[in-house]
Amino acid sequence: MSSAKTNGKARSNDTVRMINLALQGGGAHGAFTWGVLDRLLDEPDIGFEGLSGTSAGAVNAVVLAHGLMDGGRKGGQAALEDFWRRSSRGGSVWSPVNALPQVTLPGMDMLKAAHYAAFDTMTRTFSPYEFNPLNINPLHDLLTQSVDFEGLRSHCSTKLFLSATNVRSGRVRVFESKDVSADVVMASACLPFLFQAVEIDGEHYWDGGYVGNPALFPFFYNCESRDVMIVHINPMVRDEVPKTAPDILNRINEISFNSSLLDELRAINFVSRLIDQEWLKEEYKDRLRHILVHSVHADDALRDLPVSSKFDVNWSFLTKLRDRGRSEADAWLKANRDAIGNTSTVDLESQYLGLPGKRQADGSQTRVSPALTEDPGH
Fold this sequence. Notes:
There is one protein chain. The protein has 378 residues and is α/β, with parallel strands linked by helices. It is 42% helix and 15% strand. It is built from twelve helices and ten strands. The chain has helices at residues 30-40, 56-94, 114-125, 128-131, 138-146, 149-155, 182-188, 217-222, 245-276, 299-302, 315-336, 348-353; strands at 3-6, 9-12, 17-23, 46-54, 159-166, 172-176, 198-200, 203-207, 227-231, 292-296. Strands 3, 4, 5, 6, 7, 8, 9 and 10 form an eight-stranded mixed beta sheet that branches. It has a two-stranded antiparallel sheet with strand order 1-2. It is globular.
């Protein structure tokens, strides 16, 4: 009987159900993902083959992989808590919204913390090359204190795929386990209004959320498991139209940061239709496979939070997000555990894409992208 080494222990493949995790970015809201991962790590029969992450998702991915490598499931949980504790302590110095009161103006919704508003205005006026010429980034020290990157590159069994945006070409660059470093994670999390572009091998990179939040295609070509669980921290749907300038900008960012993910889900849906409706010639059937898609949404858990909260690293706030993430993951497990390895738990057409080829209620036309049949490269 074959076996898989997962979470620091060897288990037979018929007792461990391997999944791939796709972790979105979103600043301090990444603590919600921490909670999801913490709950999944409670389950000895669920293992992680691949981790694809962007920005805060990339941070959670490398911290989790480091913890699993060093101490198994308990090590993963401990490493995540240790990192977020370090973030909270560091944030008492550098966070623009730490421990600040909210400000209410007549006729307007609750505005962001006063210091955040000033900080946001500054970043729209001056570039990080002007207000931060020394390129100080506290994330670098947090990462090097929390993660053994050399160990991840040399003997980590979890497959890592970290996305960053190539500033010159505008294309996604997916860094794999053999390439992972503190600079790679910083590139994936480099918001261009806040930090100077990160240079790696002569190329400059910004936050990966613009082109892959997170990238799913590495799972198709590098992982045996067909199960992909997406942990969302950028709400897909908001019922209310934003009215304040910060809320409008935040919604634009949410839509932009979700667009690449929707494109990949559209491709998965198209391939599934090809297989289900037997459109493929016999010689091509073994080149495509069903991808089983699962998702843990943060829409309800994070919808009430202002954009400034993405910079809020107070420990009480982070643990509140963690607890919300644990709760959402627990609900998913109770409803869908048996689906792992067997079927998708989301309806891509209704939950993400609408009805392909048919006109929607708002008059828009759904577009179906071609299937991905060859590795597009990095």
